[in-house]
Structures are given as structure tokens and as C-alpha cells.
Amino acid sequence: MALFGDLNIVNTTDKRKLKNVIETAAHLGYSTVAINHVVNLQEKKQEIGKPTCVAELFTSPPTVQGKSKPIKIITRLTVVVSEASHCNELRTTSPRTRLYDLVAVHPKTEKLFHTACMTLDVDIIEIIMTEKQQFHFKRPPVNVAIDRGIVFELVYSPAIKDSTMRRYTISNSLSLMNIGKGKNIIISSGAEKPLELRGPYDIANLGLLFGLSEGDAKAAISTNCRKALLHGETRKTAQGVVHTMKKTEVPEDKEEAPASKRARTDDP
Amino acid sequence: MYSNLEKTPRHLLVCEKSNFKNEKSRHGIHVENHYFNYRVSVLIPECGALPAGLSTIGSSFGKYYLVKNLPVYEIVEQQFLDLCVKKGSFYALSYNTRIDQDNSAALIPAGKLILSVDKDTYEELGLEGQQSQYSHKAVMRHIITIDLTDASFAPGTKKYKRVIWALKEKKPLACDFLMAWHPSGEGDFSLSSYFAKYQCKEHTPSVSTKILRDIPSPVISGGELKGKPEESCDSQEFLDWLGAASADIDCNNEASSFLSTYCCPEPSVVMGQACLWTVTGFLLPEKIYMLLEQLRHYFDEPKLAHWTTLTVHGFADSPVSWGVAEHGFHKGGENLYNFVIFRNHDYWLQMAVGTQDGCPP
Q1: Does a structural domain hold residue B359?
Q2: Closest approach of chain B CAs to the CA of A44, in angstroms?
Q3: 8 Å CB contact of A1 and B1
Q4: How many helical (H) and strand (E) elements, i.e. helices and strands, does chain A have?
Q5: B86 and B157 co-located in one domain
């Protein structure tokens, strides 16, 4: 199996709180966490800003419990879409989404869910947990999304906060499981406070309640997270084979250019 | 939908009984083949003070070393093999690595190096290995076994050069190692001086003694492994009770206890006192065998107790359990064995493993 990851830790402006949450995640045994910047385009004057700088957050990231390596922190963007015009930001050529390691979409209607599975350039599709799913999942778009390498995300912190949300979480997850057969599912916390995090083996057990098998549940927090991370990395490359790196400018180049000009003018 | 909720992850328990004086008894082989031992505990009923023989063995358990950030090629190099591995039993296990998440390494005294690596490392390393038996849908783990004592692994051969190149230049693997050495003859090799350039720290196993008072204990008889109703208890029930007693859980079935409603299996008798002695560290099978022999002779003098137990726990994150059988960690990584020793040199041997483990031998 791969390293455990929690790909949804909600970003807050309070840096100390965020640091506490990440330290708790490292203590629980997660090797990778993603700081999630949520943007709801329905509200006015909401723009996709720049991600928080990870290096500013920790001078030396906390070590994962039971291992000798520090925790890996990456950035993630979630766009909550409720109209078709909001999807413009999620095209491949959008400049702002390039700054984030992972891009996720949270579709609110059936048509947008269909668009997200088929065409949008995202890594994660978040499933609504806080209200009853208005539409049923259909097999064709879910299968297309699985083929494209997109993962579906189930968030469990609403279930910790409220018992009504717990019912919605389980019913929405079960309906997804019926269609998708447990493939490409990740379970993440969506935690705003350290108390809303749970350990990886506990989440693997929670996956059993959602209808996953033993192996699938453990994969939901390890292998499939790795899949999403690699999908995010390949978004910046050409088909996942070639990637470009910015080369530092070499000062000698400037001297050569005038020399060649001189050579041309020397010819009578 | 919920049919898989009714099943718990599988675990195996093998119980066998025999007599120490029986020539075909395989107790020695079982102890010898369980290479990496973390904790040994002995429970002696009706005993108020630790017997002298046990405390001498406890102090002679031998040192082990923790070397930080040691590159794996260092224990594969010919110089080290000649000085150490071929002249005794050398045990090494990677420390602070999780078997279901990171790369782990182990060196067993048969001279085999076992590397349990994840997908990316396997593809970058370039050494031949097998897929893990406990892969789910996608293969995420591979096991590479290198026989260091093989004739084809002499220095200068293609195989040796490839392994050293892979571990030194292609993908340098380094981790913290716990190691211990049991010399087979006269040897003045010191691990701490050989690995002086890495942070090498010496440790001794920690010993603790506890006296338990007024605890109910099940009645068992050496000849009846399955127990007789009204007369003696089943070996599985006995192992459950032993776990509860060692962990200091009340077996009274009190309604007010939130922790446990476990109660001692019937028929039972109340023990006035019992001695629970525990050693924790990186323990060698050779010393455990000596301890087992000492316990056999506990009944040479008449004692109140009818039985004693010796329980050995293995490391949860080791790549192997018994011999070269692969060991994995699903929700738990237990691999332990328990001897119940009776007055007439009869014994019960119970071996238990968790989900991702082969059946014990």
C-alpha cells in the first residue's frame, strides 16, 4: 500500500490553527496533507487567489509519527460550481489553477456533475455530504471519470459535527458505491479543527460503513490518494511524459549575440 | 451491502501439544525460525518472587544496536559479510518504517536480505523481486530477496556488482536499523566500532516484573487441548484469558466496567498471586531458547503451580514472520507464539498471526 494521505484540510486565515491541524495529522500518521482553498463563485467578488506559501507556514515540517520523514504539505483548490459559467476557470489553459498542486470541483447540479466527469480538467470531484443528493448518479459519466483518472471524494467531518449530516453522508456514499463499485474513492476529513481529524485505520473502518470492501477501504486513504496526487502532477506536463522546467538565465548568452552581429557587418 | 460488515478481518491461531522429551518435538525449530522478537513475557502462577534463574537470564539477554540512517549497501558489502554475517547469526531489521507504507529491510541469519519496497522504489531500483502476496487490485508492494551466502554472490560476479550498483548509485536506500549479532565461535567483532561513522547507539533490553494478586485463572489440563466441559478449559479460551491477565484487565464481568465485560472462562480457580515478568527490546531466538529451557526446569522442584507460560511477540512491522514467510499489516500486525509448560514436561504451543500473514508452520 502507499503512504496515507488526507487531501482536504480547510484553509483558514488563522495560521496557528492551521499549524495545529497539520501537526495533529502528522501525529496521527498521515504522510501527505493538502491545504484546501475553497472558492464559491456564486458569491459576489470571489476570485481564485494565490495559494498560501507552504514554506512560510513551517520552517521544518513536523515528523510523521512512527517514521523519520517529515509530513508533505501540498496545496489544493476547490471550486464550488452551481452554474455553467463558473466552469470557465477549470479549463486546461486557465492560468490561476496552475499554481495549485490539486484541483477539485464540487458540482451542485446533475448537469454540472456530468460536465465535470466528462470534460473538466480536474483531479477530484467532491460529493455533497451536507444535504440530500438531489440527483442520482448515472453509470456512464462515473465510468468516464474513472477512466480519466479522476477520484471521487467523500468528506467525513460533517458526519462528526451533526447527526443529520451523518445520515446524508452514509446515504450519499452508498448511492455512489452502487454505481462506481468502490473504484477511485478517497475519504478525507475537511477538518477545520484538530479534533475533527481521525486516524487512518479508523477511516479505513469507516469506509466499511460506506459499503467499501476491506481492501478498497484501505486503498481509499492510501493508494487512491497517491493516484490523485500523480494526476495533479501530470496536469502540468504533456501527457505525463514531458515536463518543462524554468532554466535560469545564463549571462554569457548576452555577450555572444553582439559578436555574431559584428561578424555579419564585417562582410563587405 | 452490509454482508462484509459481519466478517472481521481474518486471523489464524494454530494450537499444538507435545512433550519436550519427545525426540520429534519441534519446539526448538519454531523458536529459532521466529527471527525478530520484540517482547517476551513469562507468567508464573502461585509465585510471589521472581525465581533466581530467570533474573540471571534476563540480565544476560545481550545488547542490541540502533544505527541511524544506515545505507543498505553497507550490510551487503563483502567485507561486512566476511567479518560478521558468515561468523555467526546476524539479525538486522529496519526501524521506524511501516510495512504497509514505506520500504523495509531485514537481514536474517540464513544470510538472506529481504527488502519490502513500494512500487516507485521497485521500479527505480532495478532488482528482481516478486509481487507481494497481499496486494489488492493494483500491485503496490514488491519483495526482493537476495541470498548473500550464495556462491553466485561472490565479489566480482555480475550479480554482486548489480546489487551494489543498485543500492549505492541507482537508488540509494537508507534507513535506521536495529541489529544484533550472536557469534558462533570466538569472535572479537564489534558492531559499534564498524558502524562508528553512523550514529550507532547501544541498548539493553528493559526488564520489568509485576506481581498480580487475587486473579481468577482457568483450570487447564495438559492432555486436553480442547478442554473437557466442567473439567478444563479450551486452549483458545486460555490464550484469551492470558492476554487479559497480561494487560491487567479485570475479568470480573462487572456491570459498571466500561472497558471490558470479559469474564474468566469456567472452570476457574482464584490465584493468590502470580508473577508476570516482561523483557522488551530486540531479542534473539537463541536467548529465548535458553529461557524456555530454564522454565522447563522450574518444575524440577515441587511447586504450587500446575503450569507456566512463555509468550513471545514479534515486531508488527517486520517483513517476515516465521522463516521467510511474508508478513503484512492490514489493521494489525501481530505475529506471536505462546508456550504453556506443564509439570510433566508436556507443552502446548499456540501460534497466532493477523490478516496479512501466512499460516504459521
Answers
A1: no
A2: 43
A3: no
A4: 10, 7
A5: yes
Subunit contact A1:B141, Cβ cutoff 8 A: yes
Q: Per residue of chain A (268 residues), give pLDDT as tens.
A: 688 999 998 888 888 898 899 999 999 999 999 998 888 877 765 666 677 777 777 778 888 888 888 888 888 888 888 888 777 766 666 677 778 888 899 888 888 888 888 888 888 999 878 888 778 888 999 999 999 999 999 999 888 888 888 888 888 888 888 888 888 999 999 889 999 999 999 999 998 888 888 888 888 888 999 999 999 888 877 666 666 666 666 555 444 444 444 444 444 5
What are the chain B neighbours of A68 within 8 Å (beta carbons)? 69, 96, 175-176
Helix H or strand E encompassing A200: helix A200-209
Phi (first) and psi of residue B310, to 5 degrees: -130, 115
Edge-first strand order for the sheet with A32-40 is: A5-10, A32-40, A72-81, A102-107, A124-126, A151-155, A185-188
Do B12 and B112 lie in one domain? The reply is no
Q: How far apart are CA A212 and CA B167, in angstroms?
A: 38
ipTM, 2 dp: 0.84
Distance CA B230, CA B192 (A): 57
Scanning chain B, the segments in alpha helix (DSSP H) are 3-6, 27-33, 52-59, 78-83, 119-125, 158-165, 191-194, 235-246, 285-296
Q: Is the domain of B209 the same as that of B345? A: yes
Task: Name the pTM for this structure.
Answer: 0.84
B360 in a domain, yes or no? no
d(CA B119, CA B163): 18
Range of the domain at B188: 64-203
Paired with B146 in beta bridges are B113
Instruction: Please choose, from the candidates A34, A3, A22, the residue with its C-alpha nearest in 3D space to the C-alpha of residue A60.
Output: A22
- Residue of chain A with shortest Cα separation from B103: A2
Residue B358: inside a domain: no
User: Which positions in chain A have a beta carbon within 8 angstroms of at least one beta carbon in chain B?
Assistant: 1-4, 31, 66-68, 174, 201, 204-205, 208-209, 211, 213-216, 218-219, 222-223
End residue of a domain, out of B150, B172, B203: B203
Determine the 3-state secondary structure of A132 from DSSP.
coil
Other CB atoms within 10 Å distance of the CB of residue B246: 17
Contact A67 B4 (CB under 8 A): no
Residues B146 and B106: their CA atoms lie apart, in Å, by 11
